[in-house]
What does this fold into?
Amino acid sequence: MAAERRGASIARPEVTVYTRPGCPYCFLLRRGLRRYGVPFTEVDIWRDPPAAAAVRAVADGNETVPTVEVGGRWLVNPRARRIRDLVPSSGGRGGVDSALEQTGARPGEAGEERPQSWRGIEDRRR
It folds into this structure.
């Protein structure tokens, strides 16, 4: 705690996103993490059998993606905001960018165009 008060940086937990090609939910999660400034490593479970086994171990035997590991904690199909909340901000990174903070908008509401193919997915979540 004293180190925090002196301004020492806090180590961020490593974020690993387990995905597979063509997964629209993985696309949305990666986009959200980039918007929030959360650095992550992506692992394709179709190319990495041990990674696929790790995902099955935490997802009741299923290869559910995206599955995310944040500093040893596993989350199955989380939202980017949940991951952002688990990763402490340091040096101004890891939080919502200033434009979104000023408007109070959430990612996906800042007026940007989305590919037509993704609109149906977002509509079903509402």
Q: What stands out?
A: The beta strands are 15-19, 41-44, 67-70, 73-76. Helices lie at 2-5, 24-36, 49-58, 80-86, 98-103, 116-125. The chain has one domain: 12-125. The CA atoms of residues 36 and 95 lie 5 Å apart.
